[in-house]
Amino acid sequence: VTSNYQLDELRRVLGYKHLRTRISDVKSIAVLENVEKRAMILDALPEVDLSPDPQDNPILATAIAGEAAMVVSGDKGHMNILGHANGIPIVTAREALATLRG
Q1: Taking residues 14-22, what's their average pLDDT?
Q2: Are 34 and 2 in contact (CB under 8 A)?
Q3: Mean pLDDT calculated for residue range 22-34
Q4: Which of 8, 23, 31, 90 suits 16 as a labelling partner, its CA being 20 to 30 A distant?
Q5: pTM confidence score
C-alpha cells in the first residue's frame, strides 16, 4: 500500500544527484512504474498527528488507511520510537524480514 504523497517522495529521492550514479533514469522509471502497477495507491488519507516529524504523518496515514500489516522504517529518531501507529507495528527492515521469513 502506498499513496500519491509517497510516490511523489520516491520520485524526488530518485532524482537526487548522488543516486544518479547508482540508478539510471531507465531503472528509476521502471521502479516507479512497478510500484504504480502493483501497489494499492490511496488518494484520500485520514488526518494523522502521531509523529514528531510532520512529514512522517502522511506515511502513517497511508498505513492506517490501507490497513497495512506493518510500517518498515529506518527512521530511528521519529518513526521507530513510536513502536506502532493505531496498532500497526513500526519495524526496521531487519525486523520485517525476520517476520516475513517466519
Answers
A1: 90
A2: no
A3: 94
A4: 90
A5: 0.85
Q: Write out pLDDT tens, residues 56-81.
A: 999 999 999 999 999 999 998 899 99
User: How far lies 37's CA from each of 7, 32, 47, 72, in Å?
Assistant: 12, 8, 26, 20
> How far lies 60's CA from each of 23, 67, 79, 83, in Å?
27, 10, 9, 12
Of 91, 72, 83, 79, residue with least CA distance to 52: 79
Q: All 3 cell numbers of residue 93?
A: 527492515
Consecutive H or E run containing 3:
strand 2-3
* Residues contacting 95, CB < 8 A, separation 6+: none
